[in-house]
């Protein structure tokens, strides 16, 4: 296996690359169009039954989150830019645009062609698709949630900023894969500083009308400069590392297409490192449940850092939604807070997957049934409660004095939200294999709807959290919302135990023996 690092490709290199790709796409006489027919069918069903009614409702009702003024729109655009840029960088570190089919990459690496000849063209196509994939949802979300596109003075610059955001997101995706960790930290810090600067300049402007145009110009310039540097870095990418990333990516893709998305995500779970001795006391015995959970969480420092940020942020947003005036902003804050707490509950506890494995294996050690749950769930419950309470308590102190009943309502709502999140996380982590019953067709006058059930099964945890938080926010009584969350969490626990087969192992007989 030999590679060349010459800048100019050999004569006929492009034709050779296209010939290999054409031959691989038509291997075995299969047509590449047929493999995407069912996906297009599901997308069309989703659009007819969900997107069309939502768009119609958004066009005939007031905006959920009014923009208010151009400076406020610029500030929201700056915050969205930072989030999208950081998310694209993080995604590029795990699954970037340079990932190819392992067999194709092996064939290319076995030739004398430089990496830029077979990675450059596919990277350009994927970046164009990624930019469009960011542009369309951003514009759709802005149209559905805000009234930015209802005013001419903000519609055109808002559209230009969305185009620039799509271009920057695509470039940041490539940057996250081809550049070192230090360069990614510099880009992340630069994105934050630039966003703060643009927001400050827009707020200092009396009219504020040029803030979105300034944001669009900054995004376009940053995308052009960073894209040029990132494409030059393709020639220096490590091919062995790219081969490992491609093999892992397509193994995860095979899991996802067979209905086990949780197994695909497990492939990207970081391996624990260090702090092994912290799990034991000086006399060799294991430490307590909370100490073990904290040590296991700190062994994956990246996930622990994400939990440290997301849990207080989720608690703060939940309290803002509970104590603020009713309306679209309060609902949006509540939903965002619920999603943050849900994500943090998985990042802070590395014992969830161990609990699933222990419940599905034979009880060889004969441990009392409650010991398994106490040992694995004590730390996640305490950590999620403490992190959410910290963020929510800071918001309550900052907004004091409040009405006498608001702290009580906020406490009940946030407590119910924590219980709901823990139940949904338990339901998600107890997932094993795809039930075969979900593969049976569901014939309706509107077509086969079994694909929608598969999507719901894949994302049942996040669907439970978002739906439950929305219903809790709509209830007029805080005790009623807390009771609803408790009941939903109980249903999630029962369904999770059924998934690992405990409903057929005699759970109540275990309780009687205990």
Automatic annotation (TrEMBL):
Q: What keywords appear on the UniProt entry?
A: Membrane, Transmembrane, Transmembrane helix
TM segments? 38-59, 79-105, 126-146, 158-176, 185-204, 210-231, 304-324, 330-349, 377-398, 410-427, 434-457, 477-497
| Name this protein carries in UniProt | Uncharacterized protein
Specify the species.
Answer: Streptomyces nitrosporeus
Which taxonomic lineage is given here? Bacteria, Bacillati, Actinomycetota, Actinomycetes, Kitasatosporales
């Amino acid at each position: 296996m030999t590679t060349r690092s010459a800048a100019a490709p050999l004569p006929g290199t492009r034709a050779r690359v296209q010939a290999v790709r054409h031959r691989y796409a038509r291997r075995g006489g299969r047509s590449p169009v047929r493999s995407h027919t069912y996906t297009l069918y599901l997308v069309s069903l989703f659009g007819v039954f969900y997107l069309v009614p939502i768009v119609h409702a958004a066009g005939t009702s007031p905006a959920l989150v009014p923009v208010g003024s151009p400076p406020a729109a610029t500030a929201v655009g700056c915050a969205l830019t930072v989030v999208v840029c950081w998310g694209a960088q993080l995604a590029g570190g795990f699954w970037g645009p340079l990932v190819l089919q392992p067999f194709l990459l092996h064939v290319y690496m076995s030739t004398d062609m430089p990496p830029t000849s077979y990675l450059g063209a596919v990277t350009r196509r994927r970046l164009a698709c990624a930019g469009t994939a960011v542009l369309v949802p951003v514009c759709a979300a802005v149209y559905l949630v805000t009234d930015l596109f209802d005013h001419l003075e903000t519609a055109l610059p808002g559209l230009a900023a969305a185009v620039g955001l799509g271009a920057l997101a695509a470039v940041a995706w490539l940057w996250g894969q081809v550049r070192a960790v230090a360069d990614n930290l510099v880009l992340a810090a630069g994105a934050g500083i630039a966003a703060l600067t643009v927001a400050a300049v827009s707020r200092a402007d009396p009219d504020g009308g040029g803030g979105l145009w300034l944001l669009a110009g900054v995004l376009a310039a940053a995308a052009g400069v960073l894209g040029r540097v990132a494409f030059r870095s393709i020639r220096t990418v490590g091919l062995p590392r790219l081969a490992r990333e491609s093999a892992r990516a397509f193994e995860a893709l095979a899991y996802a297409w067979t209905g086990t998305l949780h197994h695909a995500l497990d492939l990207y779970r970081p391996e624990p490192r260090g702090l092994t001795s912290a799990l034991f006391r000086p006399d060799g015995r294991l430490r307590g449940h909370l100490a073990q959970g904290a040590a296991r969480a700190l062994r994956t420092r990246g996930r622990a850092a994400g939990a440290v940020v997301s849990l207080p942020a989720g608690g703060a947003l939940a309290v803002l939604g509970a104590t603020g005036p009713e309306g679209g902003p309060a609902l949006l804050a509540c939903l965002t807070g619920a999603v943050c707490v849900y994500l943090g509950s998985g990042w802070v506890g590395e014992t969830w997957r161990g609990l699933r494995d222990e419940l599905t294996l034979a009880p060889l050690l004969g441990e009392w049934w409650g010991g398994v749950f106490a040992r694995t769930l004590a730390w996640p419950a305490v950590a999620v409660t403490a992190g959410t309470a910290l963020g929510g308590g800071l918001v309550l102190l900052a907004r004091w004095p409040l009405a006498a009943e608001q702290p009580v309502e906020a406490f009940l709502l946030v407590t119910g939200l924590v219980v709901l999140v823990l139940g949904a996380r338990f339901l998600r982590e107890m997932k094993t294999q795809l039930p075969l019953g979900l593969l049976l067709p569901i014939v309706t006058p509107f077509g086969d709807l079994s694909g929608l059930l598969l999507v719901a099964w894949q994302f049942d945890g996040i669907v439970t959290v978002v739906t439950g938080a929305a219903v809790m926010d709509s209830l007029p009584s805080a005790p009623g919302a807390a009771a609803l969350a408790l009941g939903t969490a109980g249903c999630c626990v029962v369904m999770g135990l059924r998934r690992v087969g405990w409903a057929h192992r005699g759970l109540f007989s275990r309780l009687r023996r205990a």
